[in-house]
Amino acid sequence: MKKMMSFGLAVCAVAGLTACASSSPDVIRREDAQIMSFIQEGVVISIRPVTVDGSQSGIGAAAGGVIGAIGGSGASGVQREQQALGVLGAVAGAVVGNAIERMTTREEAVEILVQLKSGDRRAIVQAKASEILVAGDAVTIVTSGSKVRVTKSK
């Protein structure tokens, strides 16, 4: 029973940590609020769908390794077998946890090519937003530090 509770807590931790990240232009991080941003005006030249690959921070692998070790070590009654199965479970769990983290943090996004009023062109990749952009739309590029987002001009 104790092992099942540990397993459940580890699964919840992985799920919670992977759900925290967002690169949506509709979501502004707390540390980006109340900061002056640089603004540029332009027109959308083209939009194409892209996929932003998921992250591999190691959190999924670590959590998967712990879960696998707990599950593997509880599979047999002989101590030597428990240890061997625990190690195998940890390795398998780490591989699976890493893959889960990568898949759950993967995002559908768009690459937006923008012609600035100066004639320069910019390419920006951002997560799909509630606002649909199409070629010909007047847009505002908002730059805050190293973060950039594109939104329709009003």
Report on the architecture of this protein.
The structure is a single chain. The chain is of the alpha+beta class and 154 residues long. It folds into 2 domains: 1-22 and 55-105, no CATH class; 35-53 and 107-154, Beta Barrel (OB fold (Dihydrolipoamide Acetyltransferase, E2P)), CATH 2.40.50. 38% of the residues lie in helices and 29% in strands. The chain has 3 helices and 5 strands. It has helices at residues 2-19, 59-73, 79-104, and strands at residues 38-52, 107-116, 121-127, 138-144, 147-152. Strands 3-2-1-4-5 form a 5-stranded antiparallel beta sheet, with no helix packed on it. A hairpin with a 2-residue loop joins β4 and β5. α1 (2-19) packs antiparallel against α2 (59-73) and α2 (59-73) packs antiparallel against α3. It is elongated and about 75 Å long.
How many strands, which pairing sense, and closed or not: the largest β-sheet? 5 strands, antiparallel
Q: Which spans of ≥5 residues are poorly predicted at pLDDT below 50?
A: 1-20
Q: What string gives the helices and strands in order?
A: HEHHEEEE
> Helices and strands: which structural class?
alpha+beta
Oligomer: single chain
* pLDDT averaged residue by residue: 74
Count of discrete structural domains: 2
What distance lies between the first and last C-alpha atoms, to the nearest angstrom?
58 Å
DSSP summary: helix tally: 3
Strand content: 25-35%
Helix content: 25-40%
Main-sheet strand order equals 3-2-1-4-5
What's the gyration radius in Å? 22 Å
Overall shape: it is elongated
Query: Can you count the beta strands?
Result: 5
